[in-house]
Structure formats: structure tokens, C-alpha cells
# Entry
Amino acid sequence: MRRTVRPVLALCAVSLSLAVAGCGSSAAPAATSAAGAPAAAGGSLAGQSLTVYSGQHQQTVQVLVKDFESRTGVKVQLRSGDEAELANQILQEGKASPADVFYAENPPALTNLEERGLLAPVDTKTLQAVSASDSSARSDWVGVSARTAAFVFNTDRMSASSAPTSVRDLAGAAWKGKLGIAPSETDFAPIITRMIASDGQAAAKTWLEGLKANAKVYNSNEDLVAAVNRGEVAGGVIDHYYWYRLRDEQGAGKVHSALHYFTPGDPGALVDVSGAAVLSASKHQSAAQAWLTYLTSTPAQTIIATSQSYEYPLAAGVQNTKVSQPLAQVGTVASPGELGDGKQALQLLQDAGLL
# Structure
């Protein structure tokens, strides 16, 4: 269940001179079932079509699409890929984009489109399905699920008691030759953004330079977690679900690694949300809004909670029991505004020679 590496560079390299689409008004909300999901096939949506650009976990999204189609009668064209590349494509396509919905893994990709006026307001009832802090302050996209940054360590090389309490520790001399990082992953940039906010830009750059001196660089989090598991490096920073996927792929008897969470309040104790938005230029506004309503409904959130994406659902009343730690115990949810568009983090990665 490998995923294509998502280069953080692609999104932020887009020229600011690209033409942008005007912001349109959202269509009237589609009818919904008692569970909050769009009404069953045969309703007003039946026969409509929808194109979704998705940077989220392809296997899970395919299950969501199939369920949505059966409930609504809407035919979904799914384009899965790197979220940065897809956002870049939308920027280039402008009003001519065939995309009706953008489903992203991290807020910066959505913020980039939002700031260019390419997103339509989300239906109010859909926004109310999750905490307001998990969605756009401008109401242009809605939070769907969450994941947390974590430290994965090789259990043959170190114990949980010697794992770092702060992500700052990893720039210290004690980690030289023992650390692995995947700086080109878009999951890595939000940690840098939080480091900038807490410690300042100069300190964040120094921290990155320390990581470069200490670490072996990997192309993806999949490669990194596998390297830790076989003892090539002692540990590294990943999103939590990569370890669960490795456990599934390798089998419990071949797992020589474990997860450790940074102290709450630390820049590395980051809970990041995935979100979805309707494109303002979409010609299928009703179906697009219905997709967002569906993603935040109990049926869709249950699919997410029980899937092999190992993410945390955001709607009230749905829990992921497949992960060892409840969401409230693993870190602090980063507000979309706090993470911004990720450009400062990108610049520091480039300045430090990690991209």
C-alpha cells in the first residue's frame, strides 16, 4: 500500500501571476438522510456527474466514492495523485479546470487555492458536522479527518524511555548518524511552520541545518519507516499511519519498531487535518456540495475510521479504534490559519539544502 511521494516543492513553486477564477456562491444544499449522508439514489442528484481531484489515500477514497455513488446516483470521476501537483494543476487550469472538488491531505494546499479565490463557500450544515477549528476560517473548505506526527524508533536500537521528548532534540549531536528524515514529504513542512511560530525563523533554520547534519535523507515516509524497522537508522519523524501500514504489510512478528509521541505543546506534537473543497468554477455545484456533506457524514466517517488509512475521523460520535492512542492524547490540532500556505517552510528547506 505504498503511496506516491508528495513533493512539497511543487505547490509553492506556482507563479503568483497565474490567472485565478472568481469566487462563486454555493448551490443550495442537497437533500440528506437521517444519518447526514446525501439522499439515496433516485433523488435530485441521480444522473449527475462529479470530478474529484484527490491527494488523499487512494484505497480509502475509492471505497468512499463507491458508497457515495450508491447513495446518490452521482457518477464520480476520481483523479488521485500528489496533492501539491493536483493543486498546481488547478491553478494552471483556472476556470477551465474539470475539477469540481479538491480533496487534500494538508491545509496548505487548500489555503493556496483559497487565497486565489478558487474555492466556493461550503454549505453551513456541512461545516457544522465537525469542529469549526478543523475547517477553513473563511468557510471555503471543511475538515474531514486527521493524523498526527510521531517519532518511530527501532526497538532493537533504543527504548521508549530514551526516545526524544521534543522534535528539537533531533538536531542535537546525540542524533548524528542515527536519524532519518523525509523532507520532501508535504507532511514534514507543517512541523517546520510550527517551529517558526514557536521559536522564530532563524532558530527553525538552525534546527533544519542540525537535522541535515545528523540525518540520512529518504524519498518518502514509506522508505523512512521501513529503514527504521530494519535498523538502518534508529528513528525518524513520520505521520502515525505509516507505521500501522508497515505493521500490516510486514506482519506483527517482523515489526522491530514502535511509535512515540512528542510532549504536548511541542512543535512535533502536531495533529494535521485533511479537508475538501468545492471549486468555485465547478459546473456541478449541487453534486460537489453533496460530496462534502457525505464526507462529514456518519457513514463516510465510519469508513475512514475502519479503513487502512488509520486516520482519525473528525465528526462527533465516530471513533477510530484501530489506533492505540485517542486523538486527544497525541498532540494539538493545528489550525489552518496557523499552517498558512507553507511557503516559509519551503524556503527554509531550500535554504538548509534539504530540497
Summary: The two ends are 25 Å apart (CA to CA). Residues 1-34 have pLDDT under 50 and may be disordered.
